[in-house]
Amino acid sequence: MKKIVKKLVVKNPEGLHARPAGKLVRILSDTKSTVIINYKGKTVNTKSVLSLLTLGVDPGEEIEVVIEGEDAEKALKLVESVVIGGN
Amino acid sequence: MEVIKVPSQYIVYEGYCYGTLRYIKKKLEVDKNMLLDLKELKAAAERLIDKIHTKKSFNKDIMEITEIHKMILADPFLWSEIEKNAKNGKISIESLLNVRDKIIELLINTGNPLIIERQYDIKDIFNALIKEIVGEEKKELFPNDVVYVEEVYPSDIIELYKSRVGAILSKKGSHTSHAAILAMSLEIPYIYNVPELSKYDGHSVFVDAFYGKIIIDPSPDKIKEIKRIIKKYQEEKKELEQYSKLQFKDIKVMANIGFLQEIDLAKKKGADGIGLFRTEFLFLNRRSPPSEEEQFLIYKRVLESFYPNEVTIRLLDIGGDKQISYLDMPKEENPFLGVRGIRLLLKNKELLITQLKALIRASKYGNLKILIPMVTVTKDVIEVRKLLEKLRKDVNGYGEIKLGIMVEVPAVIFNIEEFIPYIDFVSIGTNDLTQYLFAADRNNVNVSSYYNDESKIVLSAINMAVNKLSKANIPVSICGELAGKAHIIEKLLEIGIRELSVAPSKIPKIKKQIAEFLDPKASSRV
Predict the structure, then answer these.
(1) Domains in chain A, ordered, with CATH?
(2) Which residues does chain B have within 8 Å of residue A24's beta carbon, measured at their own beta carbons?
(3) How far is CA B498 from its chain centroid?
């Protein structure tokens, strides 16, 4: 079981709002790891798009991702593609 | 016959429609005390998810938005909240709506306008869920109907599109809502912030979503005129599609946009760049100013999207008519003659500095032109130029940045020579220029006869400016509504205007007009 903890700065110009949040949930749905996002004292699981939305992460903000599971590295790459990728 | 004018800033997508007004009530007519079985609720949610799943759409915007609705319907947080409010495996509709409102409150508490918008998606989903269980009375809609609702939900737009509705009017709305994105994407005329029209249910109505006019029960003469306008428009529309691809050697037709969401439409319609990117959306409807990083990412996105074409980004242009909680704005009797545009920015240097820094950083991703609004005296420009140069030294890796001014205050027209040493380009804002020249508010129907942007006086003012600026090789563009008036294009071109910036949907028609004016040898199809 791998565990990765990493701080990421959100580069997506839409922050983690509707479309990026939805994309994050969708692409992580196939992974075996759990992905948790910590932001300003709040903790959410990426299985819940609503919880992600209520985090209200603006572009330029820093989040902490905690990933646990056998495909943790793959999951991290997926998270980075949405958060940093800017799409 | 009643004529209603809606400010053009509330037009999401343009067009004409003459049909019957259908008022669709949003309020659910169900007994709040009715108990729903949790298992049935879950099954209803599954059915909805399936319905969304099987509706494979050709349109990527619809797909993205319905994907999110699917996710919300399966969201573990949603169901844990519903279960919390259930007793003995049942939940009342009132409790269900309380869960809905709690979620909406969480969204509103983020203080972020884009997330707050999502409340309509939540309302949409709960609405659909309840209708799925309770069954609904569907209002019959016919092609070319004009639908009036208090609020538009994304699924409304999809349903309305299928019914081939001619136009949508809503009391509340915004350019950044999912509904607006879909209306633009599906090209359905849509205006929001429309006054109360429910009493006109069943009446005939003409919607002019170009100008922002609604005519209820038009007179027989008006009807003849309307039918002519629409026929002409429909014939043109088909023909116009091909003109978006046109590119001229020396003339640019660019887009005026105010939201990132409009980028796709601007590209689809063939914009030769962005002649005006309004930044007000970044600053309004929030509790604190946008950070430098947030602004940088947005400016970078626009610049990249249109590279190598130029993108003109206008500094924050607002005044006392708008409320900004984090700015100290004095109460003014005449906000349009008060502290606005650059005047406001120079009194709020921190804000100006942050915006300039974000722009400087973004400049290396495209061809940036910075536009200063409401310039009156040269000091306005000199101060910004000094600040820009100082900040450029602090920021790494910047590209070329051009600095220019909006010409809208009449004083500038008479004194344009003095500005020449400090500017790289000019954009004439004919809307405000006309207002100030004739001392008439263009949104005030009581003085509409005085506001005339086609008057020879306005053209003469433009001519004065162009004469002096062209001698100094300073490019001039027109970004007001006048640039979108096809019948005036010839006059503007004759004056020497070579750059026009208009709402995206107007680009094909303007390009056609230019092509007809020019010698065919001067245009080339790309």
Answers:
(1) 2-83 (3.30.1340.10)
(2) none
(3) 25
Considering the entire predicted model, what is its pTM?
Answer: 0.75
Catalytic machinery residues of B? 178, 479
Q: For the domain that residue B101 is a member of, what is the CATH number?
A: 1.10.274.10
Q: How far is CA B27 from the centre of its chain?
A: 27
Closest CB from B71, B260, B291 relative to A25: B71
Instruction: Give the count of domains, chain B.
Output: 3
Beta strands A62-69 and B16-23, pairing class: unpaired
Residues B16 and B158 in one domain: yes
Element (H, E) at B344: helix B342-347
d(CA B108, CA A42): 16
Q: Is residue B340 located within the same domain as residue B438? A: yes
Closest CA to B14 of B201, B231, B191, B241: B191
Residues B174 and B285 occupy one common structural domain: no
Instruction: Give the domain extent around B424.
Output: 239-525
Domain assignment present for residue B52? The answer is yes
Contact B113, A14 (CB under 8 A): no
Give me A25's structure tokens. 């949930």
Report the number of secondary-structure helices (H) and strands (E) in chain B: 21, 20
pLDDT at A18 over 90: no
User: How many angstroms separate the CA atoms of B17 and B229, rounded?
Assistant: 10
Residue with tokens 């009194």: B347
Q: Are residues B13 and B50 in the same domain?
A: no
3-state secondary structure of B16: strand
Residue spans of beta strands (DSSP E) within B283-366: 310-314
Whether the CB-CB separation of B120 and B152 falls below 8 Å is answered with: yes
What is the per-residue pLDDT across A44-68, written as a single tens digit (0 to 9) for each?
999 999 999 999 888 889 999 999 9
Which chain B residues have a beta carbon less than 8 Å from that of A58?
Answer: 112, 291, 294
User: Partners of B408 in the beta sheet?
Assistant: none
